[in-house]
Amino acid sequence: MTCLTCSRNKCAACYREFNRMEHLVEHMRVSHHSAHEPRCGVCGKHCRSLDALRDHLGFGSVLPKAGCASVFTARGCQLCLAVFPASGALRAHRAACQLSSAPTQSQLTRSMSRMNIQGGGHGGAVALGCKMVGGGSDGTLDVCARVCLIDEHENILYESFVKPLIPVTHYRYEMTGIRPEHLRDSATTVKQARKRVEDFLLNGEDPWKIRTARGSARILVGHGLDHDLDGLGMDYPAYLKRDTATYPPLMKTSSRLMSNSLKFLTKSCLGYEIQNGGHQHPYDDCVAAMRLYKRMRALRHGLKGEVKGCAGPAPASVAEAFPAWRQRELERMSPEELLRMSKPDYRCWCLDDV
Q1: Which candidate in 97, 127, 146, 268 could, as Cys together with 131 as Cys, close a disulfide (CB 3.0–4.6 Å)?
Q2: Is pLDDT larger for residue 50 or for residue 174?
Q3: What's the pLDDT tens digit per position in 143-170?
Q4: What does the mean pLDDT of the chain come to?
Q5: Does residue 220 contact residue 230 with C-beta atoms inside 8 Å?
Q6: 258 has a pLDDT exceeding 50
Q7: Mean of the pLDDT values across residues 81-106?
Q8: Do the beta carbons of residue 13 and residue 39 sit within 8 Å?
Q9: How many alpha carbons fall within 13 Å on the CB side of residue 69?
């Protein structure tokens, strides 16, 4: 028999039940549930990440939600995890949801572009990818040897081999395809590559201005951005970076969120494979990261009665959403009212379109 008290104290987001209302309030303080979390298209349960939602729907999980898993098997898209009212609608959706791989090397050469980016708001977004070779005595030190920058339409804005500042002890040719002759006199210096990338990112803005206001500066997309930026010896404001390795909905589900590889995310969310051995061009990584960003940015979240479902960015502190001095008032609220007050602890990428 279901406990009536527990059912009244049931979280409206994750459906966890509590014996006392004060325990539910404390749960809402620390969980940061919001309209921006991935949700089951069958039962509406909020999940912390897409990985958690896949487990809920039975993707290799030993304990899926049986009713949701059976419905999803019949009418669900395994890439975006949406559930459709009929199998016909699902078939029509799959053609657009499953993307093809990035252009080949011959097509890539024809996509070179030096035009201004026409993106959504401000200066749009660009994706950065770098390939590293090995430095140091044992070749384990990552040194940037190739850089690629693309726009939202997957046109190459800048691409070049980069001459490392220290001797290369391991070219990692099997993966990078980089040979010693690529990094000789014709290669760009790190300083020159950094200047070109910064010019595209700043988009005419003074560097000091973007620390406090975006202006016309561009959003920077990538996977493991800090690693790539370190390789170029440059920095960029955190509020302008969109890293698919650290975006909570794309991370692994565990006691603490950990990064999924770009290879896994491309296969599970976009439907094609990258990094399958052989020489890897940074353009493929740029395209995959940009496609992931655009897919996450295009998501429309919402609770009933909310416009676009965008409840806004995270508050400065937990106390702003659920202040302790309102404890008695919070305990008299319904679980649905508590959920409407709750805020995410990250800025959802769907807000980039607002």
Answers
A1: 146
A2: 50
A3: 999 999 999 999 999 999 999 989 989 9
A4: 85
A5: no
A6: yes
A7: 84
A8: no
A9: 13
Burial-class residue 261 by CB neighbours within 10 Å (0-12, 13-18, 19+).
middle
Inter-residue contact 34 to 321 (CB < 8 Å): no
Q: What distance in Å separates the CA atoms of residue 121 and residue 211, rounded to the nearest whole number? A: 18
As a whole number of angstroms, the distance between CA 6 and CA 179 comes to 65
Distance CA 113, CA 156 (A): 6
pTM for the structure as a whole = 0.89
How many Cα neighbours within 13 Å face the side chain of 88? 0
- 247 closest CA partner among 265, 232, 235: 265
Q: H-helix or E-strand containing 40?
A: none
Angle at 289 between CA 287 and CA 295, to 5 degrees: 100
Q: Which two tokens stand for residue 142?
A: 């990552």
Please check the confidence at residue 316 and state whether its pLDDT lies above 50. Answer: no
Residue type, 203: N
Could you count the other beta carbons within 10 Å of the beta carbon of residue 85? 8
State how far the Cα of 95 lies from the Cα of 93, in Å rounded to an integer. Answer: 6
What pLDDT, on a 0 to 100 scale, did the predictor assign at position 302? Answer: 61
Are 156 and 149 spatial neighbours (Cβ–Cβ below 8 Å)?
Answer: yes
* Amino acid making up residue 77: C
